[in-house]
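Supplementary Note 3. Input sequence used for the single-chain structure prediction.
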Amino acid sequence: MIKTILFDVDGVMLSEERYFDASALTVWEMLNSPQYLGLSAETFTPAPAEPQIRSVREQVFARDEVLNFIKSRGINSNWDMVFLAFSYQLIRLVEQLKPALGDEAVQMLAQQIDRPQVAQLQAWAKAHAADFHIDYAAFTADFAKGNAQKAEMLVYLNQIAKERCGVDTEMFSRSSQLWQLCQETFQEWYLGDDRVADSIGRPTRQPGKKGFLTDEIPIVPPAEMIDLFRTLKEKGYTLGIGTGRPTIETHVPLSELGILEWFDPNRVVTASHVLEVEGEFPQYAPMSKPHPISYVKGLLGLDTPNSEAVKFPLPIENGDEVLIVGDSLADFLAARSIGCKFAATLTGLSGQEARAKFEEVQADYIFDDVRGLLTIL
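The predicted structure, written as discrete structure tokens, is reproduced below.
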């Protein structure tokens, strides 16, 4: 008998569209803005209108082909998506610089890359690669040559660097300075000028970004979600959250929609909490989904020491008492690691097309949207 229900947020309560928009804009800025690589002559703006946002996303993710591919390989973090898409084009740029600069350019990929190195690459590109063409769609073809899944995809960039540039490197990873730069730039876009300092500890580098936090798109009408969570709470279920969003990006929109109050505050686990666990136990990083730690913390409670959560024996003994509700294969894999029930919602990026995949992996329940919970509880 189910007693605890743990929910993902993106693709279940809130649309992922704004996250994907912010991801595309981040890659676009880092490739084209004069403050980064400055590869395009087009005028960059930190405040694009909606039609330009649609155009940028269509370009960067090749009509969502790149996005779907990344998601199919188990990547559930927008920070990782940005790092993958930007780093791939950076490798291609160094490949084009190699004939003119030789080892000087190639060795750039063997060291940590932060703003000074990006500035150097911009100068080299203007002098030696003025005709460089950003090929967004090539990403899928190159990564499809290997079988890297989840966090392995980030490391697979090192293999691509070897194949394209002939350099031995281990620089591409989630612990790199470049990953941190991508993460902070994404936060600028998603949170906007007014909120980003609370997240990354500094103002926006390129002011003018309004952010998407107050422009979220609920999947189900908020009143109907409130009715759902109120009903579940009244029936005695313990409700928690395990999301890849940082804390501010979880609390602000869910509070504004009147949803957050129905969840046990001790069981609202975000990417910020997962980063704390990684900091305490770096040997287990990365711990983003499909790693189960966010849901384990949601099950045990935030007041449970991280050491206890990390060492908690899995699968759990009372798996039939816990239900995870998510839209992605990463959520499903986390649920299976824990040994609990899983309900899939067909409101993620793939929509109804995801049904066949969830049927193939034998998800316990498959719903058109989160309201389907009331048919089984």
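The two ends are 9 Å apart (CA to CA). The longest strand covers residues 238-242.
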